[in-house]
Amino acid sequence: MAKPKKTYTPAPQVAPELAERLQVVLEVLAGQRSVAQAARSLGLSRNHFQTILHRGLEGLVLAISPRPSGRPAKSEQEASLEAQLQTLSRDNARLREQVGSTERLLQAASGLLQGRIRPMRREGRPKKSATSDEAVDPEPESERQCTLQGVEDMKRLGLTTSFACAIAGVHESTVRRWQARMRCGEPLLRPRRARCPPGAEQVRRVSDLVHSLNGLVGAESLRHSVDGISRRQAAHLKAQTLTEMERERKAQLVRVTVSSPDVMRGMDGMYLHGADGSLHALFVADAAVAYRTMVRTGPHYDAKLVAEVLAADVANNGAPLVYRLDRARAHDAAAVREVLKAHQILVLHGPPHFPQFYGQHERQNREHRAWTGELALLPLEEIERRLEELIKAVNEVWRRRTLDWKTAYEVWIARPRLVVDRTALCEEVMQRTARIARQLEHRGQPADLAERLAIEQALQTRGYLRQTIGGWC
Known about the structure:
This protein is α/β, with parallel strands linked by helices and about 475 residues long. It folds into 5 domains: about 20-60; about 95-120 and about 140-185, no CATH class; about 200-250; about 255-415, Ribonuclease H-like superfamily/Ribonuclease H (Nucleotidyltransferase, domain 5, 2-Layer Sandwich); about 420-470, no CATH class. The protein is about 55% helix and about 10% strand. The chain has helices spanning about 15-30, 35-40, 45-65, 75-115, 140-155, 160-170, 170-185, 200-210, 220-225, 230-250, 305-315, 335-340, 360-370, 370-375, 380-395, 410-415, 420-440, 450-460, and strands at about 255-260, 265-275, 275-285, 290-300, 320-325, 345-350, 400, 405, 465-470. It has a 5-stranded mixed sheet with strand order 4-3-2-5-6, sandwiched between helices. Strands 1-9 form a two-stranded antiparallel sheet. The radius of gyration is 45 Å and the shape is elongated. The chain starts with 15 loop residues before the first helix and ends with a strand. Residues about 130-135 have low confidence and may be disordered.
């Protein structure tokens, strides 16, 4: 137990040369002398002596003042130095830990390079003898365990799984397979037995499973579902079945081709960010030559903006026969219908919740998104001007194979003038719509289904629209 600290202070020893001055100060404090008399006796000026007297009183007051309870507070400088010391200690411990991890990581990599963890690689299989049922695997079980242990060590030291597997020379799927076998207590090395090709019944069962599950089933699941096939054989059969399914899907597609410019144009919007806010950009493009005819921006994607874009597009490029628009509310407003009715333009709406109908314009918007990073740095008032420059470059610089290696601008300016009796076209569409509506069962179908089919048939009759079975998308 620590001894209590002494608080007693002994009487001070006064030097002989200060004894007289101390005696005079005490007499002044006791009222036996005046300040002037004391100063004359010591040969000092009154102000000098009074300063000495006040200095002594200040020290006396400080000495007799009660001290605060508890430990004395630390100074700000001392507290700051202690905080810096703690920070440096933590950083030092962290750096020591990193150095240790780096040393262990280098040891693991050194073991790989020196052959203690030999990288796995595919080598030619040794030929099996006529009487041998098993192939001699060039990778013993112990070496595989050593490789897996090296990968685990490097992952614990902070490396990602892909990086650790790359150092060890194995694939991530191989490591996952080894880990699963180790958790189940199975050997990492499974002897490969000579297997005969799968029979017709096995091939049929694998194909049926892949078809019924739409290709989601894995090779390991197929191996456990069909007796007599290996995982490698199951993966090969699955790949063949997926190829057949993709060919069947493409054979059922219908590819739509617009044969002439000015027949159909599509319009769609994009939401763009600028340096000081966001806005909507509406693009209009021809469906036959992918020529962007118009771009306009606005703060809101509403009927007013849509009507302005369509009116400007018609004024600058002429009226097409059909506008292909999605089912946004702004596309079916009264102001938009007035613009279309004034120029006798038909509207082709796709099926609800079917974005593939507008796939051509969605593909063009994906091209426009290549510049979203640049546009995000511009103020809003400059984005429309920059978009006009971009679509001009896409129209006049990009040579396309679908246009016989011409630009969209070259094909557009050389397009023949489209002469169509719009009144007769609209009347034909109305008649076809009424006839198709009488033959269709509308339950569960959109109300404008008959009109859409009528527009498509009218364009096909005039040779402006072709539908080919067997697409390639």
